[in-house]
Specification:
The chain contains 3 helices and 10 strands. With 244 residues, it is an alpha+beta fold. It has 2 domains: 97 residues; 128 residues, no CATH class. Strand 1 and strand 2 form a beta hairpin. Pfam families: DUF4232. It comes from Streptomyces viridochromogenes. Keywords: Lipoprotein, Signal. InterPro entries: DUF4232.
Length: 244
C-alpha cells in the first residue's frame, strides 16, 4: 500500500468519525429536548386536574355527600328529639289526667244546707240540761258546717250566743254520710236562770248567714229554756260538742 493511499484512508476515517460524532451530538440534543418536553408535560399535568384528580374531586364530593348524610342524620336526631318531646308532651297529656285530683283539691267551700242534710235534736242526760244537734250530710258532695248554729225555740225573738272557747281550729267538713255536732245549753243547771219557758218547736239555721232553717222534732213534753241558753260551735265529734 502506498503512503498516499494510507493517508487517504486515514482522512476518510477521520471524516467519518467526525460525522458520526456530530450526528450523535445532534441526536443527544434532541433527546434532551424530548426529556425537557416530557418534564414540561408532567408540569402541565400537575397543573390541570387529571382523571385521578377528578376522581379525587368526586371522592371529595362523595365526602360532602357523606357529610350531608351526617347532617341529615343530625336532623334526624333532632327529629328524634322532637319525637321524644312529643312523647313527653303525651305524658303531659296523661299528666292532665291529674285533673282527677282536682275533683277534691281540698276542703270544700260549699256550706251545708237543709236541702242536703238531715238534722236531729236529742235531749241528753249528761251534761244536764243539754240538747245535742246532729247534722248528717245526705247529699253526694262534701259540705262545710261553718261557725255555729243559730237556733230559735218556740216564739223566741233572738238567737242565743256561742261559747267562743268552743271554736275549732278548722271548719268541719262533712263527706257524704258523715255527721257534725253542736250542743245547746238549755238552762242553768243550778236554776239561776231567768225568764224560763217550755218550748215545743225548734228552728236550726246551720250558720249565722243561712236563710233556710231545719226543723227537727223536740220531745213531746217540750224542753225548758231560760236566758242562760248558749250553743257550741260545730264539732266533728259528739264528745267535743258535749264538752260545753
Amino acid at each position: 500500500m502506498s503512503a498516499h493511499t494510507h493517508r487517504t484512508r486515514m482522512l476518510f476515517a477521520t471524516a467519518l468519525t467526525a460525522a458520526t460524532l456530530m450526528l450523535t451530538a445532534c441526536n443527544n440534543g434532541e433527546g434532551v429536548k424530548d426529556e425537557g418536553a416530557a418534564a414540561g408535560s408532567e408540569s402541565t399535568a400537575s397543573t390541570s386536574p387529571s382523571p385521578r384528580a377528578s376522581g379525587g374531586t368526586s371522592t371529595g364530593k362523595g365526602g360532602t355527600d357523606s357529610a350531608g348524610s351526617g347532617a341529615a342524620g343530625s336532623t334526624g336526631g333532632t327529629a328524634g328529639s322532637d319525637g321524644a318531646t312529643a312523647s313527653t308532651g303525651g305524658s303531659g297529656s296523661t299528666g292532665s289526667s291529674g285533673s282527677t285530683g282536682s275533683q277534691d283539691p281540698g276542703p270544700t267551700r260549699t256550706p251545708c244546707s237543709p236541702a242536703s242534710t238531715r238534722t236531729t235534736a236529742t235531749e241528753v242526760s249528761r251534761p244536764l240540761n243539754h240538747l245535742l244537734l246532729t247534722v248528717t250530710n245526705t247529699g253526694s258532695k262534701n259540705c262545710n258546717l261553718v261557725g255555729y248554729p243559730a237556733v230559735r225555740f218556740g216564739e223566741a225573738q233572738s238567737v242565743p250566743p256561742a261559747f267562743e272557747d268552743s271554736k275549732p281550729q278548722a271548719v268541719v267538713t262533712l263527706a257524704p254520710g258523715e255527721s257534725g255536732y253542736a250542743s245547746v245549753l238549755l238552762s242553768a243547771a243550778d236554776g239561776s236562770g231567768s225568764n224560763g219557758y217550755t218550748a215545743k218547736s225548734l228552728e236550726v239555721y246551720l250558720d249565722q248567714s243561712a236563710s233556710a232553717a231545719a226543723r227537727p222534732s223536740l220531745p213531746a213534753k217540750g224542753v225548758y229554756v231560760d236566758d242562760s241558753i248558749q250553743v257550741s260551735y260545730w264539732q266533728s265529734t259528739m264528745a267535743d260538742a258535749l264538752a260545753w
